[in-house]
Amino acid sequence: MLRRPEHLLEETSAVELIPELGAETDRPRLAPASRGVAFIGTTLDPTLRALGVSTVVVCGVSLNLGIIGLTVEAVNLGYHVVLATDAVAGIPSDYAADVLRHTLGLVASLATVDEIIGAF
What we know:
- Helix content is 29%, strand content 15%.
- The longest helix is centred in the middle third of the chain and has 11 residues, at 66-76.
- The chain contains 4 helices and 3 strands.
- It has a 3-stranded parallel beta sheet.
- It has helices spanning 44-50, 66-76, 93-102, 113-119, and strands spanning 55-60, 80-88, 109-111.
- The N and C termini lie far apart (38 Å).
């Protein structure tokens, strides 16, 4: 159980997409994770499998919690995970760099956004 679950409540600004991403109505939109991990309590896994997805590219602002949980759970479910190293953040920044290098780098591929785009 989350110590402070109020920061993940549906229909609050805490779980809304930032305007710069542009919410596209023709793309699937999943309910936000209620336990801090995108695969738990959501339809993310069956949605990705139905689309034939085998690789998940991860970016976001919570290397302290969300990115770790998402990455580990995706790997546990059999996805290949690529972390966009210049599109994630954590606090403090030296901790975030250590998490990428010494933890997530052990289970996921690390690449910059430019490298990821180049691979497509």
